[in-house]
Amino acid sequence: MRRPELLAPAGDLERCRTAILYGADTVYLGGKQFSLRSRASNFTMDDIREACSFASEHGAHIHVTVNMIPHNEDFEGLADYLVQLQDAGVSTVIAASPAVMAMVREYAPAMEVHCSTQMSITNAAAADYLAKTLGINRVVLARECTMEDVRRITASCSVDTEAFIHGGMCVNYSGRCTLSNRMTLRDANRGGCAQSCRWRYRVFEGDRETGEGPWFTMGSRDLCAAREIADLMEAGVASFKIEGRMKTEYYVASIVSGYRHLIDDILENGGALSEEKLLAHEAEIMKGENREVCPGFYSGIPGSESLIEHPDGEASLNHRFLGKVETFRNGHPVLLTRNPFSVGDRVEVMSPGKRNRFFTIEEMRDEEGRYLERSRTPMRLIEIPVPFEVNAGDMMRRDL
Ligand code: SF4
User: Fold this and answer.
1) Which atom of ligand 1 is nearest to the CA of 172?
2) pLDDT tens-digit profile of 85-101?
3) Interval between CA 197 and ligand 1 midpoint (Å)
């Protein structure tokens, strides 16, 4: 069984480092220009250089998205930008336009070109055509591929395939959607999607309000393919992609670490896991700040059960991020806090490359050395004795 690449998103340098430390083989990110997700805190060229250097030190790679759907005026400066990416050490450009793919080949041929999911590739012939005509090295499959589609395309196409395993789904055909354009004048295909599908709507048929609830939403649940990973590995998929360049550092650490352990466990066990082990891995992955999830198209064409019921996302939260170890005081870790916690809480510590460990908070002190029973406010530096070794950058959470 082939060892797949685990490909994680990053919206800034901190999240890029975190993704690599928690087990990503490759990180994809967007520059300030030419990329979708224009609201993500995107990388300057200096940041991209630093990301490449950190990745190289850890045996990882950086992919950069140049995946907007460009209009004529959008090409200005693109050739120079591609050369700069190549010089920075970027291994791959992810493109959604044949024009951009051709420009990568012409101006920055040392980089690979991967065909973005925005091109909605759902068959091997389309991937082969792009490989022959534009020299693409990999196709990121449309999220709308079923497991059978993935198997057939991966078995018969001439380039590697990449499949989404976790994160947001579009209720319209992956980004081929103008809902946001209509509702907010923000172009989804130039990075401005306002996620209008997730809003709450009242539905009328003529003058009569329909529907049983107080509102209706058409947003899709997020994808979680933990149960399908072994089948995707068996199919020979080269890379597993986690969606979410706008997600938090804690989310990136939780999801990357969850899938890292799952994939490694499957490889160690020759391709299959017991139901008990699978449930444990799923539970780990679901400790991240997930919205409601579904298996997407991997279990067939999704029906109404794949729509979100709670657009605020709170319903699926089962753990709270408490903070990240920032420094040490009096020989104890100091947590930069995010959410409230108390003496007596049982806490889970996430450390890169290790299984998670647990302890109960017996005491804690604030910046002035005063003992506290409860930490209520975010962004405080709280000293907490921990009965085992922790390092700066480790994260803590507790269940709800
Ligand atoms: S509005 Fe919803 S369906 Fe449309 S592009 Fe945005 S996330 Fe996708």
Assistant:
1) 3
2) 999 999 999 999 999 99
3) 6
